[in-house]
Write a structure and sequence with these properties.
The longest helix is centred in the middle third of the chain and has 21 residues. The chain has 16 helices and twelve strands. It is an alpha+beta fold and about 475 residues long.
Length: about 475
C-alpha cells in the first residue's frame, strides 16, 4: 500500500508572484532515518510502505495532490535589509488539514536549489537536520509553539561545507504556515500594494479569522510573539538568529539554526557563531521581538488610506508589546518558583535569583529543578547569598497552594543540551542512530524524565561554545 496524503492547498492558489513552482531535486539513495508517527496520525497521513516514505520525504517522488513550490520573502538579517530572500533550499509540498482541524504546511528542507538559492547548493547536511528534528520536537513537548519534524532522510550523497564532505539529508518540516514578517516585507518594499493586501487577507483568514483588518492582524501577531519569547526564556532557549524572515505570523518557533539551551546562566549568552555583537543574546530577545513587529507594522501601514492614523495605531500596538512580554515573562518565571498569582514585586525576587545564578554560572535548568529539593544551595558557589534569597522566597510562597506541584509542571527535568546534541550528531555521522533515539525518547516527557546522565551539564571538555547556521 502506498502512502497517501490528502492535500488541501491554499497558498498555491495565490498569485504566481508569491512563489516559484518547482519540484524537489531527486537524491541518489534516500534512506528513512526518523519518522514522526504521532504527528503523521494527527495530520491524517496514511503512511503505507516505508520505502515509499523515504522516496517522498527525500524528494524523489512527488505525492499525488502536492503542488511543490518555493516561497518568496525578504528580511532583515542582523538588522540589515535584504530585499529578496526566499526558500533557497526548501520546497513546500502543500498543505493538509489534520484530524484536529488545523491546517499545516509540509515542507522539505535541503531539497535542492531554487531561484532563491543565492549561489547555495540548496542542500543540508545531516547535523543540522537532526538538530532541528530533536530541538523542534523537544519544544513541542515543552508546550511551546513551534514548527515540528515529520521525517529525516539521508540522501546517500556527500555535500561540501567548510569542514569538507558531509553526509546529506533532508528534513520534512511541518508548520501552521511558513508566512513570515519577511513575506510582508518583500511586497511592501516593492510597493506591490495589491499583493500585500492579498497576503494580509490570506494571513487573517488562515491564522486570525476574527481580525478585522491589517492593524488587528498586527495586534494578533504582536500578542503571539509576546507570548512566545517569554516561553523560550523560561526554558533557557536562545534562538540565535531572530531575523525577520525567521519570525512567523502564526507565533511558532521556526528555523533552528544556531540555537541552544543554556547550561550556565547569563543574560548576555550567545550561541550563534556569527552573532559577534550579541544582537540575539538571551536577554535581548524581547527587544528583538518588538523590533521585528515594528518592521511588520511598517509593511502593513502601506495598506491604509489614512497613513497618519495607521502610524498612530501601529505605534500604539507595538509600544504596548514590552509590557505584554513583561507580564508573560512574570507569569512564566513566577510559576518556576511556585507562585500562582504573581505580583509586580515578584519580579525583584526572580531577578535576584537570576543575578545569583549569573554571578555563579549556575546551571539554568538544574537550578530551578533543585528548588523542589533540599540541596538547592549546592547549585551556588555563594551559598550564603542563596540562603538569604531562599528565606525571602519561602516567606513569599508559604501561603501558596501546592507550590511544589507548580514548580514541577513549570520546570523541565530534561532539555536538549548542546553537548548531547553534538554527541548525537557525531554518532549519527558514524552510522549510529542510538543516541538520537535515546534523546528523542527522553525529551518526549521532559517534565517526568529523570535520566541523571542527560540532566548533567557538560564537563569542561564537553562544552560547545557556539553553534552554526543550519546549512
Amino acid at each position: 500500500m502506498a502512502m497517501t496524503i490528502a492535500f488541501d492547498n491554499s497558498y498555491a492558489q495565490l498569485p504566481d508572484a508569491f512563489f516559484t513552482r518547482l519540484a524537489p531535486t531527486a537524491v541518489k539513495s534516500p534512506k528513512l532515518l526518523a519518522f514522526n508517527d504521532n504527528l503523521a496520525k494527527v495530520m491524517g497521513i496514511d503512511t503505507g510502505d516505508l520505502p515509499d516514505l523515504a522516496e517522498v520525504f527525500g524528494g524523489n517522488q512527488t505525492p499525488s495532490g502536492a503542488v511543490p513550490l518555493a516561497q518568496l520573502y525578504a528580511g532583515h538579517q542582523f538588522g540589515n535589509f535584504n530585499p529578496q530572500l526566499g526558500d533557497g533550499r526548501a520546497i513546500l509540498l502543500g498543505e493538509v488539514v489534520g484530524t484536529d482541524g488545523i491546517r499545516r504546511d509540509i515542507q522539505l528542507k535541503g531539497s535542492g536549489q531554487t531561484p532563491y538559492s543565492r549561489m547555495g547548493d540548496g542542500r543540508a547536511w545531516l547535523g543540522p537536520v537532526l538538530r532541528e528534528y530533536v530541538v523542534s520536537e523537544a519544544m513541542h513537548a515543552l508546550g511551546i509553539p513551534t514548527t515540528r519534524a515529520l521525517a529525516a532522510v539521508s540522501t546517500g550523497e556527500d555535500i561540501w561545507r567548510e569542514q569538507g564532505a558531509l553526509p546529506g539529508a533532508v528534513l520534512t518540516r511541518v508548520a501552521q504556515s511558513h508566512l513570515r514578517v519577511g513575506t510582508f516585507q518583500v511586497f511592501a518594499h516593492r510597493g506591490e500594494v495589491d499583493h500585500l493586501r492579498i497576503l494580509t487577507d490570506y494571513a487573517i483568514k488562515r491564522h486570525y479569522p476574527d481580525a478585522t483588518g491589517p492593524m488587528e492582524l498586527l495586534r494578533k501577531v504582536c500578542a503571539a510573539q509576546a507570548a512566545l519569547i517569554p516561553a523560550w526564556m523560561s526554558v533557557g532557549f536562545i534562538h540565535g538568529v531572530m531575523n525577520t524572515d525567521n519570525c512567523t505570523i502564526s507565533g511558532e518557533t521556526i528555523d533552528y539554526g544556531p540555537c541552544a539551551f543554556m547550561d550556565g546562566f547569563h543574560q548576555n549568552r550567545v550561541f550563534s557563531s556569527i552573532d559577534q555583537q550579541g544582537r540575539y543574546a538571551f536577554g535581548n530577545q524581547p527587544n528583538i521581538a518588538v523590533w521585528n513587529m515594528a518592521q511588520l507594522a511598517t509593511s502593513l501601514i502601506q495598506l491604509a488610506k489614512d497613513k497618519d492614523a495607521a502610524v498612530e495605531e501601529a505605534t500604539e500596538i507595538v509600544h504596548a508589546m514590552p509590557a505584554q512580554i513583561e507580564a508573560n515573562w512574570l507569569d512564566r518565571f513566577a510559576a518556576k518558583i511556585g507562585i500562582s498569582k504573581p505580583r509586580t514585586e515578584d519580579s525583584d525576587l526572580i531577578d535576584r535569583l537570576l543575578g545569583l545564578m549569573q554571578n555563579d554560572g549556575a546551571d539554568f535548568a538544574n537550578t530551578f529543578n533543585s528548588l523542589c529539593k533540599p540541596n538547592a544551595r549546592d547549585q551556588f558557589a555563594n551559598r550564603e547569598a542563596f540562603d538569604a534569597w531562599a528565606e525571602n522566597w519561602q516567606n513569599r510562597i508559604k501561603d501558596e497552594p501546592d507550590p511544589q506541584s507548580r514548580m514541577q509542571t513549570a520546570n523541565p527535568q530534561i532539555i536538549p543540551r548542546n553537548h548531547r546534541i553534538e554527541q548525537m550528531i557525531e554518532a549519527a555521522v558514524a552510522g549510529d542512530m542510538a543516541p538520537f533515539h535515546r534523546l528523542m525518547a527522553a525529551l518526549a516527557t521532559p517534565f517526568e524524565n529523570t535520566d541523571a546522565d542527560l540532566q548533567r551539564p557538560p564537563s569542561q571538555e564537553e562544552i560547545v561554545p557556539a553553534t552554526f547556521c543550519g546549512t
